[in-house]
């Protein structure tokens, strides 16, 4: 019995030839699979967008830090105003 692939689909044997097919019926050596493999290998080797991703991550961290600081300042101001209000007896 053929083993399961990562998707959990069981490969189907082609027309009695004993060649396993993937979940969508493509042979491992078919042009579709080879094209997908070459596209995937090109995407893995391509690092042109990495700087953009790095800058986006840095920007996200800066925004998160700023939100934390602004929230902390807001809590501090609220407590300060509450203590002034209580001190005035209002």
Number of beta strands: 2
> N-to-C terminal Cα separation, in Å?
82 Å
How do the helices and strands follow one another from N- to C-terminus?
EEHH
Please describe the biggest sheet, giving its number of strands, its sense, and whether it closes into a barrel: 2 strands, antiparallel
What spatial form do the alpha-carbon principal axes imply? rod-shaped
Report the portion of residues in β strands: under 5%
Q: Domains counted in the coordinates: how many?
A: 2
Poorly predicted tracts of residues: none
Number of helices: 2
Structural class: mainly alpha
Radius of gyration: 30 Å
Question: How would you sum up this structure in a few lines?
Answer:
The protein has 90 residues and is mainly alpha-helical. It has helices at 31-45, 50-88; strands at residues 12-13, 20-21.
Give a verbal description of the structure:
It is rod-shaped and about 85 Å long. About 60% of the residues lie in helices and about 5% in strands. A two-stranded antiparallel sheet has the order 1-2. It has two domains: about 45 residues, no CATH class; about 45 residues. The model has no long low-confidence stretch (mean pLDDT about 80). It is mainly alpha-helical. The protein is built from two helices and two strands, in the order E-E-H-H.
């Amino acid at each position: 019995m053929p083993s399961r692939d990562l998707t959990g689909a069981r490969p189907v044997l082609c027309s009695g030839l004993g060649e396993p097919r993937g979940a969508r019926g493509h042979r491992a050596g078919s042009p579709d699979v080879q094209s997908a493999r070459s596209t995937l290998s090109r995407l893995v080797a391509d690092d042109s967008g990495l700087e953009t991703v790095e800058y986006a991550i840095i920007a996200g961290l800066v925004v998160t830090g700023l939100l934390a600081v602004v929230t902390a300042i807001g809590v501090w101001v609220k407590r300060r105003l509450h203590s002034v209000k209580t001190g005035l007896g209002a």
